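Step 1: inspect the first sequence and its tokens.
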Amino acid sequence: MPLHYHAKIIFCFVMALLCKTVSAQSAADSAGYDLAVNNLVNHFYQGVGQQSRLYNGFVYDSYDSSIKGNAYLDDVDAWKGGTVDYDGQSFENVPMLYDIYTDQLVVLLYNHASPFALVNNKITSFDLHGRHFVRVPNNNLGIKTGFYEQLYDGKSQVLKKVEKALKSVSGSNGRERYFTPSADAPDYYMKKGGTYYKVSSQNSVLDLLADKKKELKQHIKDKHIQFDGLRELALASVAAYYDSLTK
């Protein structure tokens, strides 16, 4: 079980780990990648300092290398700079990964080697890979607590949830484990009257927003909105138009 550490305890713990060498690649292959990560981390910590409020979370254990695929957003297991609103403060250029399987945001500490999972309920939102995620707390009806990609930020908020599953199959070398997108993912939700409702097709949206069904059908026709191929844009467009009708 991961243990929760105060910032000063984390600092001491991280310094003790400096003697460890963590490498998943050969020295030749990893030199360029290490340099890029180091530059990113150095830039971040020059701005916020090593006593940042960001040091408040959990030690993050990486997955067994025998597991095929990975647990991360867009299948990217390399550190990328992002922005996170954490514990009442905004941090930019943070080296991070989003673990979809455990629904955890993982950052890289200033020793360039120690992954660190932030406390979920201290995260308001974060941006990674050009996408914006918000945390829905457990006091919202119709949707479970967790991180969701925000497709539209209005009264009729539209959210997307992507999940991964860890599966096991019989192979030539025994049981093999691999990450795969969950069978039902992604799920889409639209907010109405303080409650989130699962939506997917044009009909499900029109049923939810039935009080303006006629106007929305005309909007979909006039704007040539397609739910089959461009579902995310369609949901956001219809939600925004509905909000304009119900101001």
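Step 2: inspect the second sequence and its tokens, then contrast the two.
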Amino acid sequence: MYNIAYLTASAQQQAGAWSSVIMLVLIIVFFYFLIIRPQKKQEKKEAEMRNALQIGDEVVTNGGIVGIVFSIKDDTLVIETGSDRSKIRVMKWAIAKNLTIHEDDE
């Protein structure tokens, strides 16, 4: 009788351990589809927007500066701001939005 009770308790412990592992896997899958995957899609979309910038596009930086792209280099660009045409050099990753609508974007 003792052996049967011991085997039953051991089987219950194994079932509890497996259910814990399954719950952990389900939580990881849940976080992947609700948080990580949409964030990766958004980052990819923003990178495509930054790579498609052209001279003359009106852009907004993460700091809220609005300007027109004056020149583009590898990872920086120069934007012209204000009526006095002051120029600011910013990193490409600092561009939040491209306000110019191109015909091929439609």
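Step 3: confirm your contrast with the notes below.
Strands lie at 58-61, 66-72, 76-81, 86-91, 95-98. The first strand starts at residue 58 and ends at 61.
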